[in-house]
Amino acid sequence: MIWAAIVVTAAGCYAVKLLGLSVPAAVLERPLVRRLAALVPIAALAALIALQTFADGRTLVVDARAAGLAAAAVALLLRAPFLVIVAVAVVVTAAVRALTG
Amino acid sequence: MTRTSVQAGLPPKPRAAVVRDALGVGTAVGLSGFAFGVTSAGAGMSVAQTCVLSLFVFTGASQFALVGALGTGGNPLAAAAGALLLGVRNAFYGLRLSQLLGLPAAVRPFAAQWVIDETSAVALAQPDRRLARLGFTVTGASLYAGWNITTFLGALGASALGDPAAWGLDVAGPAVFLALLLPMLRGRSTAASDAAGTDAAVPGGVADQRPIATTGPAGTGTSGGTARSTVGSTVGGTPGGTPGGTARSTAFPWQEAAVAALAVVLALACVPFVPAGVPVLVAVLAAPAVLAVSRLRARHSSRRSPRHSSRRSPRHSSRRSPRLSAGHSAGHSAGHSAGHSAGHSAGHSAPRSARRSPRGERR
């Protein structure tokens, strides 16, 4: 089933790219469509952050991941490079787990 | 089109500069495929699955979203749907690029896979079709190669580490998303409510474009210029109907913040009640919801105080002035990365001159 998800995602993402290259401009140029296209990824990203940080199966928890994410936020605000942001999050999460675990 | 005026009276941009910028963006972002490889393997994907994702999905945010959802035991189709939602913006890049690159129908299926944030940013920043094609191709090729090689290495490395959770690797995904989301919430995306512009706000293409481009070597080259071009075209107004579109679709940064907040609440609220993977899909409804509310509000307030009323309404004026809002957010974007504002430079005359100067100023 993981392969199914991979195939669907690959096919879908490719189709979306090709669609943009192929459809007449008027279809996607409407302001409402563009606005939605801008806001949908924001909603998806925000939800993913929250879920992958606070969800554990079907329960909500605050654990080492929250600390890691907070550290990433600080790194981000300090304009750290992308890989540093990720590394900080990972290291802090691992450290908190090691200390509390 | 306005392309002719773009070209008028300016020295030709050297191909070498385009290639250098494109290679810089391509390698810098390509390197961060490492983060994806590690995350994917950490989420339980095999090395083969991880590599297939980078080869065939090739749009970073979607890849991170998919492995994140699958890693937490989410329904595979719901996970795929969530990933697809993040990939939608590529259609808007394609829209811009198809006009700019003028690709023959036979070439489009091959070019399509490279239609992502970074290639769009580089291509749209070029002054003419020839250089845009060059920028698109060089960025696409270097990024595709780099992203896939580093994905493979990251997956191998992570597999060797054993239990990914012990190393905190499960938080890499959210950290990536945060790096993608924050610039959008600052309203940078709103400066260019233009198609490509707005969506590049989600640098997810290959997830990391924004942070990398902000700090990376080539990123700074294109970024300052395109950011400024946004200022020029948004504030100054441009031919080609953008001003109207801009005004109508002008984003107020509060919309971004409201969408994000509502999405978080929706997602977390339904965690106990629906299978994993579904909360993201529910949360996405925050986007149309906020849009609907703001439309209602706009309609409501415009009925009360007509737009061109000579009587000033101080309570509403700041909120309702699209020009002000556009200018404000354009200011925000100055100095930041290429992605979102590049869209503007495609069709407008202001960008080019603005674009050239930062090249000189660059350290």
UniProtKB/TrEMBL annotation, chain A:
It comes from the Bacteria. The keyword Transmembrane applies. InterPro entries: Brnchd-chn_aa_trnsp_AzlD. Keywords: Membrane, Transmembrane, Transmembrane helix. The chain crosses the membrane at residues 36-55, 67-96. It holds the Pfam family AzlD. This is AzlD domain-containing protein.
TrEMBL record, chain B:
The keyword Metal-binding does not apply. Residues 203-249, 296-363 are annotated as: Disordered. It is a multi-pass membrane protein. Coiled coil: none annotated. Residues 323-352 have a biased composition (Low complexity). Signal peptide: none annotated. Residues 296-322 have a biased composition (Basic residues). It is found in: Cell membrane. Its main location: membrane. Residues 234-244 have a biased composition (Gly residues). The chain crosses the membrane at residues 22-44, 134-159, 165-185. Keywords: Cell membrane, Membrane, Transmembrane, Transmembrane helix, Transport. InterPro entries: Brnchd-chn_aa_trnsp_permease. Belongs to the AzlC family. PANTHER family: INNER MEMBRANE PROTEIN YGAZ (PTHR34979). This is AzlC family ABC transporter permease. It comes from Microbispora maris.
